[in-house]
Amino acid sequence: MKKNLIFLFAAGLLLAGCSTVAMTGRKQLMLVDHSEVLSSSLTYYKEVLGSVKVEKSTTRSTQVERVGKRIAAATEEYLRNNGAADQVSEFAWEFNLVQDNQANAFCMPGGKIVVYTGIMSMASTDDELAVVLGHEVAHAVARHSDERMSQQMAAQYGSNILNAALGGKSENVRALASQVYGLGAQYGVMLPFSRKHETEADYMGLILMSMAGYNPDCAVTFWQKMSAGGQSVPEFMSTHPSDQTRISNINDKLAEVKAKYYKPVTTTTTTKTTKSTKTTKSSKTTKKTKK
Q1: Which of 14, 116, 191, 210 qualifies as a cystine partner to 100, CB 3.0-4.6 A?
Q2: 220 and 251 in contact (C-beta within 8 Å)?
Q3: Residue 235 and residue 149: Cα distance in Å, rounded?
Q4: What pTM was computed for the model?
Q5: CB-based contacts of 148, cutoff 8 Å, min separation 6
Q6: Quick one: pLDDT at residue 266?
Q7: Which residue has the higher pLDDT, 153 or 62?
Q8: In what order do the strands lie in the sheet with 112-116?
Q9: Active centre residues (catalytic)
Q10: pLDDT digits over 188-238, tens only?
Q11: 103 near 230, Cβ under 8 Å?
Q12: How far is residue 239 CA from its own chain's centroid?
């Protein structure tokens, strides 16, 4: 009887902690306070930037900022147009390029994105870079960090002491944050999201990059380059989808995303019509009059 009561109580908490991802409609487990997550992630983000060499005022860093800002603007437009305008204020977008040979990027809640220089050779064009940044922004919009922490909380404490865990939520959020954002030798890269989160971020990223005017077809070529450039881990051993699965999933969604969201940016080139004034040399013809 006691076990049943504990189970029902825990189930009630789980239901109370349900949320929905706006772009996909997927239900999420949410047991943490988002404002606490934002606060703790900002602390870790500052520590990360303090421990690395941030590249500033270079062609590459300018490119990261330019593409990032356009995707951020498209994200805010999407949120405003889809009943989530209240979420816009939680984002204070930052896009930093960090000198590191890893082909990697990561995102903190609240729109703090870090790109490693090692990925720039795979994402040399704005469209390819938009694949990376759209994916990372999608993690923030879907609040995958909150969900990951909630999953860890549920797993760590189990249903029988879930109540106690939630009772001291602030302290537990800090403890879980140190695991999820764990600052280690690799500058605090977050523990990987699940395959479900990665696939969702790929899809949402396609939508966001398309709305920003970047060509979503480049997602396939980008991941093909990533696949060719690195050692592939068997999918069952990885928290990320295999490259083949990822490319296949993206291909399945491309037609739908392009039809609904792709707004190519037309570059208007103003051709200056210079009136070329023909300077005609008027050669004076002197008529010789016969005397």
Answers
A1: 116
A2: yes
A3: 23
A4: 0.75
A5: 180, 191, 193, 194, 197
A6: 61
A7: 62
A8: 54-55, 94-98, 112-116, 105-108
A9: 136
A10: 233 455 778 889 999 999 999 999 999 999 999 999 998 887 655 544 435
A11: yes
A12: 17
Instruction: List all residues 6 or more positions away from 151 whose beta carbon is below 8 Å from its beta carbon.
Output: 29
Residue type, 153: M
Q: What is the pLDDT of residues 23-69, one digit of tens each?
A: 888 888 888 888 888 888 888 889 889 999 999 999 999 999 999 99
Q: Per mean pLDDT, which range of 19-23, 161-165, 182-186, 197-201 is the poorest? A: 182-186
